[in-house]
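User: what does the whole thing look like in 3D?
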Amino acid sequence: MEFGSKGNRRKKMLVNAQAEQLYGHCLQFYSQPPIENISLSEFEIFAVERLKLLKTVENLGVSHVKASELYNKKLDKELSNLNFPIRAEADDKKPFSVPSEYDKRRKDHISHFILRLAYCQTEDLRRWFIQQEIDLFRHRFNDLKAQYKKEFLHRNSLHYDTITVEEKNSLTKKLINSSFAVSGVTVKEEDFYKVPFQDALDLVRGRKVYLQEGFVYIPHMDIVTIILNDFRTRLSKALALTARSLPAVLSDERLQPLLNHLSHAYVGQDYSIQKSIGKISLDQIDPLSAKSFPLCTRQLHRALRESHHLRHGGRMQYGLFLKGIGLTLDQALQFWRSEFVKGKVDADKFDKAYAYSIRHMFGKEGKRTDYTPYSCMKVILSNPPSQGDHHGCPFRHSDPELLKQKLQSYKVSSGGVSQILELVKGMHYQLACQKYFELTHNVEDSVFSLNHPNQYFIESQKLLGGPGAGVKVEVKREDNPIPKPSLVAPCQTPAPGNVPQDVAAEMSEDLDSFFQDA
Amino acid sequence: MPAAEYDQASLPDLLPLYYRRLFPFSQYYRWLNYGGVTKNYFQNREFSFTLKDDIYLRYQSFSTQSELEKEMQKINPYKIDIGAVYSHRPNQHNTVKSGSFQALEKELVFDIDMTDYDDVRSCCSAADICPKCWTLMTIAIRILDRALRDDFGFHHRLWVYSGRRGVHCWVCDETARKLSVAARSAVAEYLSLVKGGEETVRKVTLTDPIHPFIRESLTVVERYFSPYALLGQDILGSKEATDKVLGLVPEDVRKELLVEFQTIKNPEKRWGRIETMAKNKLTTVKKGHYFDKEIMLQYCYPRLDVNVSKGVNHLLKSPFSVHPKTGRISVPIDLRELDQFDPFDVPTISLICEELDLPLVAGEEEEPEDTKENEKEAGERRKIRDYKRTSLAKYVKLFDQFLEEMARSRKGELLRKSDFQKDF
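Assistant: Here's the predicted 3D structure for the full assembly of 942 residues, as C-alpha cells:
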C-alpha cells in the first residue's frame, strides 16, 4: 500500500484499469493489495468500521448458531449499517445509490488490508483475525446466488476434483448417511468433490462428511468448506509475510499508534489490572464465592473444596480468575496448597507438581507471560470440559436438568429459572448468566453487558460494596465501546447516506473513545 | 519363571542394568530417524527425562544414537518422554531468537487413560485397573485403529501399553507427522463421541443420520457390550446402577421401565426391554431416538484426552520407558492378539533384569567369537542377545516388525516417486 502524499498520475490510471478486476465481484479473496492513495482519515474510518464488523461477527458467533436465520439477518444488518457490500443490494443494481456498490467493495478491500497490518504481529492476533474473517467470508459466500458462486470460483481459478458417477453410485448409502443435507437425489444430481481431509477440517471435525482413506467426499453445496480452507491458508501465509514487512510500515509515525491501538482493541478489557491486588484475603473467598462469583467459578470453587483437587482446565480457569480478583502469587500458592493437601496430594508433591504451574500463571516461569483471566468467550468456546472436569461455562456445558437443580438450590425463583433456561435454550449463555446476576442481586436492569467472569465479580462487588469493588474506577473508564456480545442491537452508525465531513468527524470521535480503552 | 515382584525402591538399581543391556536403542533410533529422509529429524527431536524425585529435564536432544545411549546410561531416567521435532536443536533452544524456535512435526498421538472412565466402571477407580475394565481399552483400540486406518488412511499405527492404566497410539505416517494443530484437533474431535464433564449426565447424543463412522464403532461396541457391561460391570444389576442407566432415557420411557424392572431382574432381559423401547420409539417418533445406542456408547466408547492429541509440542511417554510406579515396561501391543493382551502379563523391569541372570538355555549358547570382529560390534551383538533372553524379546520383535513395515512403505514411496519422475 502507498501512503505517500505524491499523487501519481500513472498510478491513478492503473487504479482505474484494476477497478473491474478488483471489484467486479462482490466477494474477493483479497489477493491484490490496494495501490491507491487514501487519506489518513479514511484509513482510520475504514479500519475502525471493519473492526466493528469483525467484533460483531465474533459476538454473533457466540450467541447464535452460525448461519442460522437470525445470525444471517443480524450480520446482514451490520454489514449494511457499516456500508459493507451485501448480496441483496448488489442484486438490486441500483447504480446511483450512495454509497455506491463500488465504494462498498473498495471499502471492503482496503479495510481488510489495513487490519492485516494491525493483526499480523502475534499468533493470538492472527488467529483472532483469521477466524473472524473466515466467518465473515463464509456468511457472504453462502449468501451468494448459485451463479455468483460459480463466477467466484471461475474468477479465482478454483478447480476441485469431482468423483465419477460409478464411484458415486458405489458410495451412495455412505454419502447419504454422512450428511444431514444429502439425500439420494443430491447424490444423483450433484457433483461430489474428493479432497484430502486436511482441506475440509470443519466438516471432518463435526463428522459432517464421508471420510475414506484420508479423503473426504464433499457435496457441491458444501464447497464453501474447501474454499474457506483455501482462504485460510492464503490469509495465514499473507499475514506471515505482512508481519515481515511491518517494520517498514510502522516507521511511519502517523500509522504506528493507530495500528497498535487497533490491534489492542479486539479483546476488550482483559481484567488483568493489578490495582486490585492484595485487597482480598483468603478467608473471604468462601463468602465471596457465594455472593459475587459467577456460576462458573462458584462451581469450580465448590468442586475444589469438595474434592480438594481440580484438573488442569479447572486450575487454569479458576486460578486466573482468582488472580484477576486480586490474589497475590503467595496467596494463590497458599490457597491451592492448603486445599490440595487435604486431598491425595501432600505438600511435597504439591510443590513439585503444581506450584510451578501457579507461578507460571503469574508469569514467573517458562516464557514469563503474564496470563490474563479467561473471558466468557474463551470459556464458552475453547477446551470444553470432559470426564472429571468442572471448568467451562455452566450455562453452556451443563445438562439443563442439572442446571435447573443447581439454580434452584441457589434460591433462584422458579420464574427466574425458566427465564434462564429459555436463554440457554436459545444459546444466549452470557445473557443467561447476566440474568442470573440480576436475579441474585435483585436488580432489574443491569447497566453492563456481561462478557467476562471477572467483570461479573466487579459488578457484583460494586453493588454489594465489597473489597473487590476497588477496581471499579478503572473499569468504568476502560469500558469498551465496541459492540457487546449478543442481543444488543448492532452499533448505531450513520445510515447509508452521504458520508463526507460531518460523519467523518463523528467517526474520529468514535475513534477517540476507542483508544481510551486500549 | 521367577515371579519377580517389583519394588519401587529397587528402581535406581535396576535402571542402569536396563539401559546398559536391555533397552532397544538401535530400534529406537531407527524409529525416530525415519530412514534419515528429512535432515536433522532425529537431531531436532525433543526428549524429556524425569529423574528421581520428579526432577524434570526438558529439551534434551542428541545428534547420534550413541550420544543418546551414553546420556541415558549416565543419568538413568525414571521416565522418558518424546516431544516434537523442532526447527532447531532443542538443547540449544535458549540460544535461538525466541519465536523462531518452533515445534514443526510430531507423530499424531492418542492417549487413553482409564481414569476417564470412572463414572462408568464399577470394578475399580482412579489408577486401578483389572481384567474386567481392561476390556474398555480393547474396545478403544479396536474402534480407533479401524478409523485411523480406514477413514483417515494411516498405515503405521503403533499401539503401546502405557505401563499402568492406559494405552497410547503413535501414528507415524509422514502425513500424520506433518499435520497442523487444527488438523490434529479435527481428527481428535471426529473420533470423540463422549462429551461433557461432571455437569453433564447424557454425554452422547446421536442424531440422524448416523454417520458411517459411528455405525462402524457401534458394531465394535455391540460385540463387547453384553459380556462386558451387562455381565462384567453389571450396569443393570443394582438399583443404583440401573437408575444411572435409566437417567439416560427419555422420561416417559423411564417411568415405564421402572415399573417393568420391578419384575424383570435379569440384566440381559432388562437390556432387551430398553432396546425394544428404543426400537418402538424409532417407528413412532420421526426424529431418531437412539437412547439404547447412546447408552452403549456412553459406557463403552473410547474417551480421548483431546489435548494430548492436539498439540504438536505435547510430550508423551515413550515406548520402552519404565513406569516408575508399576515397574512395567511400556511395550507395543500386538493387535492380532489384542483380546489376549493382559496388562498384568507385561514384564516388569525387575523381571527382565532377573531373567538376564538365568543360565543360558540350550540352543542359545555363545556363538564362537569372531576374532576379526571389533569389540564394538561384539558388544552390540551381546546386547542383542541380552534382550532376546528376556520376556522383553517378543515386544522388541513386534517393534521390529513395525519398523520393517515402515521401511518397506518408505521404499515403495521412493520408487513411486522416481518412476513418476521418469515419466517426464
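In plain terms: Chain B has a mean pLDDT of 90. The CA atoms of residues 309 and 389 of chain B lie 36 Å apart.
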